[in-house]
Design a protein that fits this description.
Order of helices and strands of chain B: HEHEHEEEHEEHHEHHEEHHHEEEEEH
Distance between the termini of chain B: 52 Å
Helix content of chain B: 25-40%
Order of helices and strands of chain A: HHHHH
Strand order of the largest sheet of chain B: 5-6-7-2-13-12
Number of strands of chain A: 0
Oligomer: heterodimer
Largest sheet of chain A: none
Structural class of chain A: mainly alpha
Number of helices of chain B: 12
Strand content of chain B: 15-25%
Number of strands of chain B: 15
Number of helices of chain A: 5
Shape of chain B: globular
Strand content of chain A: under 5%
Shape of chain A: globular
Largest interface: A-B, 26 and 24 residues
Largest sheet of chain B: 6 strands, mixed
Helix content of chain A: 55-70%
Radius of gyration of chain A: 11 Å
Chain lengths: 81, 436
């Protein structure tokens, strides 16, 4: 059964929490990733996780900010596929 | 006072990781060639100069909390190398040199001097130089790479400021396990890295011919203002994608260096660029301020295609993605543990052997700011930038760092690699990045 956006968000929050070593409670899905401290390396780590978890390779998609800037936008982008 | 008594809680041994040992090997190689080890420098531009006496006094009392700063490498009975800290000896005060210049334009050559000078003895790893020009004030912190990496140096500065403000420091990691287990994992990582490197060096990469003599390393620094920095960041995000500043900065640096390689008629089908990546999680930068916590990406770029920026950015992103996916940086860290069995002269031999294989066209790094405050003691910090002495080979590097929404770019090079016109050409191209 496909996951809904909320469930995808939760998985992404757990992964970002692990990558950045920060409490998942502090990660809000509507906040831009760069303000959480995500940089190019941690973002690539997240994209690798997305490929493994959701079987979607987003690295070649152009990574335009409107689709990737927040966990919510990213979850929607994953949900669409 | 809530500052922890580090000396009481710390044993005399801090085991060195494989990466630490490789850094020690590079240090040994530098000293064998020129007497100068593997040094770098963190530079703070301050709005006003701190009180000299107070600075010297605070540095002295701060150094007493860190006996590790007076250690040196040794080898334990289990054959594991470690950082030996003689706790029973008096800890010397951190050296503070004060330089007064009448000519403001000479500040860069003045702050470049300490990073090109040997430390006074084997127990000195950190030197502070305050440069006052009448118009501007710079505090240069020259550090031994064996005990601090670039991000660690900024994090260490945080500790100093917290000490100055009498704040509590928690969870500072001063010990490290010997890592004498999981040998199968380490050998498999070694095999993976060996294959990875063999694949990268199938064809001869482009490298500049160098003279092994180590004359002073020179620097050019470019300081972008917040508007220029934002423009460059937005351009990177538009061209390479959201958060892809590092791949974009590397791409434009390759293009700039490519023009020099072309002009010098350097042959070879590709560029090889090792890019250090921090292995600390964001929250751990301060906890793991001391010693080395980084690994590498290694990018191989087809020299015939570098004029196409879109292709170049994508290629770097894709290689970065594949290396993360295949856990190459992690394997480098694991494989490097195997190097620890070699003595420093033997490690030096391996490094020289690898140098002959031309493993780097030039060095590159991007460092986001780890110093989280805008003051040093009571003085406002206007900017922070780095002057890394790039070991030969390659002896040349482009380094980006960020402080308070401002980007800085440093070109580090030895004179035998570039003539004055080429230095000017690179500098102008780097300056133009914030304006285009």
């Amino acid at each position: 059964m496909p996951l809904d956006t909320k469930q995808i968000e939760e998985k992404l929050i757990r992964q970002i929490s692990a990558i950045l070593s920060v409490d998942s409670q502090k990660i809000k899905p509507e906040v831009p990733l760069h303000t959480l401290g995500v940089d190019s390396l941690s973002f690539v780590e997240l994209l690798v996780f997305i490929e493994k978890e959701f079987k979607i390779k987003l690295m070649t998609s152009g990574l335009q900010a409107e689709d990737f800037k927040t966990i919510r936008a990213l979850a929607k982008r994953i949900g669409k596929q | 006072m809530r500052w922890p008594n580090v000396s009481a809680s710390n044993s005399m041994k801090r085991y060195l990781t494989g990466v630490d040992w490789v850094v020690n090997g590079i240090d040994y190689a530098g000293k064998a060639q020129s007497g100068i080890g593997n040094h770098s420098e963190l530079v703070l531009e301050l709005k006003t100069s701190p009180n000299h006496q107070e600075l010297a006094k605070t540095l002295n009392s701060f150094s007493q909390k860190f006996p590790l700063l007076t250690g040196y490498p040794s080898r334990a009975i289990n054959l594991c190398p470690y950082w030996k800290t003689p706790l029973n000896k008096k800890i010397p005060a951190l050296r503070l040199d004060i330089v007064k210049l009448s000519d403001d334009s000479q500040y860069l050559s003045s702050i470049s001097m300490p990073v090109n000078a040997a430390f006074k003895n084997k127990r000195e790893h950190l030197v502070f130089t305050l440069v006052e020009t009448g118009k501007r004030t710079f505090l240069a912190i020259t550090f031994d790479h064996r005990i601090l990496d670039a991000k660690g140096a900024e994090a260490f500065l945080n500790l100093f400021q917290q000490y100055y403000e009498n704040q509590e420091i928690r969870h500072l990691a001063l010990t490290c396990p010997p890592h004498l287990n999981k040998w199968k994992e380490k050998f498999l990582a070694g095999r993976q890295i060996n294959r990875f490197l063999l694949n990268l060096t199938k064809e001869t990469p482009r490298t500049l011919p160098f003279d092994p003599k180590q004359e002073p390393c020179k620097f050019k620094t470019i300081h972008l203002n917040p508007e220029q920095s934002e423009r460059l960041t937005n351009k990177a995000y538009a061209q390479a994608g959201y958060l892809m500043f590092m791949p974009y900065a590397l791409a434009v640096s390759i293009q700039i260096m490519h023009r020099i390689f072309q002009e010098k008629n350097i042959s070879g089908s590709s560029y090889l660029i090792p890019v250090p990546m921090d292995t600390r999680a964001k929250e751990e930068a301060q906890k793991e301020a001391l010693f080395n916590h980084f690994s590498f990406f290694i990018f191989k770029i087809d020299a015939d295609k570098v004029s196409d920026l879109a292709w170049l950015s994508n290629e770097i992103k894709n290689q970065m993605y594949e290396q993360v996916k295949n856990r190459i940086p992690e394997a480098i860290v694991n494989a490097s543990f195997l190097m620890r069995i070699a003595s420093l002269p033997l490690t030096n031999f391996f490094i020289r052997l690898m140098s002959k294989k031309n493993f780097a066209s030039f060095s590159f790094s991007y460092l986001s700011n780890a110093y989280q405050q805008n003051k040093f003691m009571q003085e406002e910090i206007l900017n922070i930038f780095h002057l890394p002495r790039t070991p030969k080979p390659p002896g040349i590097g482009v380094f980006f760092n960020q402080f308070d929404n401002k980007l800085n770019i440093t070109l580090s090079y030895f004179d035998d690699l570039l003539n004055a016109r080429q230095v000017e050409q690179i500098t102008k191209s780097l300056e133009a990045l914030g304006n285009e």
